[in-house]
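Researcher: Let's continue the batch. This sequence belongs to Agmatine deiminase, and it's 386 residues. Same format as the previous ones, please.
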Amino acid sequence: MDITDGSPDLHGFRMPAEWEPHSQTWLGWPERPDNWRDNGLYGQRAFAKVASAISKFEPVTVCASASQWANARKQLPHDVRVVEMSMNDSWFRDTGPTFVVREGKSGSGKVEPNVAGIDWNFNSWGGIDDGCYIDWSHDLLVARKILSMERVPRFPQSIILEGGSIHVDGEGTCLTTEECLLNKNRNPHLTKEQIEDVLKTYLGVKKIIWLPRGLYGDDDTNGHVDNMCCFVKPGVVLLSWTDDESDPQYERAVEAFTILSKSTDAHGRKFEVIKLHVPGPLYMTDEEAAGFVQVGEAKPRLPGTRLAASYVNFYIVNGGIIAPQFGDPKWDEEAVRVLSRAFPDRQVVTIEGAREIVLGGGNIHCITQQQPADPMFTPLQNGNGV
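Model: Same format as before. Here are the structure tokens for Agmatine deiminase:
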């Protein structure tokens, strides 16, 4: 169903922080041969690892095309729900709905829904000229299909926006990047102030922290914030960092650190910034590049391309952290230590071989989409409510 009379904030909705309780997680299933090498063989194994890890903490639904449903069902644990859905690619952070919640809304003696979803517009991260592929007609329907399947009210929105371009603390503050949201290939007709107004009315936030740029090499998304910086809790953020002054990421990291250090959140709190070192740098090998079947529709995957690998691209689940590992012994271990200290009440579960997801253009956070629990009927998670 659609709620057409006004924006989410007028109905009391807000986007909850990722650490607030989930009812389930949604993922797509990768298959396109021009974005997942060897016909998706390795990417599917990585997605299956992620889905399996999440399923230990909360329910998981994986959406697969008709031709891939049986393959996905075979590779995934029995407790993971697999449903059939058409899609152009499997980045549900960006094509799935952004869920919003409200606390105890009711009226006229009837119970009203406390979970709804925003159905953003999508143009394949840049449209015909700059996007990652030229046909995104199936992706445009992913959010609507998910919301219909769950019988969750839908807020349609015409602005081009991907879920990976925003992070919220659940208390009125939003993180994003100018490199993405102000890019002329998204909403050239809108000013920065107009985009802020949309974020405030649809996410229920009061303050936007604009970082100039995202992670170096994250060209597919034009610098999504979820590869660069995220909230640990209100007033605390993790930032993709490098100590190597010769690395192009260094300038971006210092730039972001300076802005965050001088900023306050919606409640006037100064930010504590935790540095999370990036791996590598890592580059696409000749062997990896040879596994892609270029059919002329998607951006080419070329050998020697620097991979947009970041440990900030983890996913928070009920009681856990699902974290990528890239085969970099030094920084893989350091990332686990930093995340364990940042989230002492959550179990950090690592996904070996997350490099396969990076080869496709993103990571664990990019392929997942949380559906929050109803705030009025939130069950205890793992016996302690977290």
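Researcher: Any comment?
Model: Residues 380-386 have pLDDT under 50 and may be disordered.
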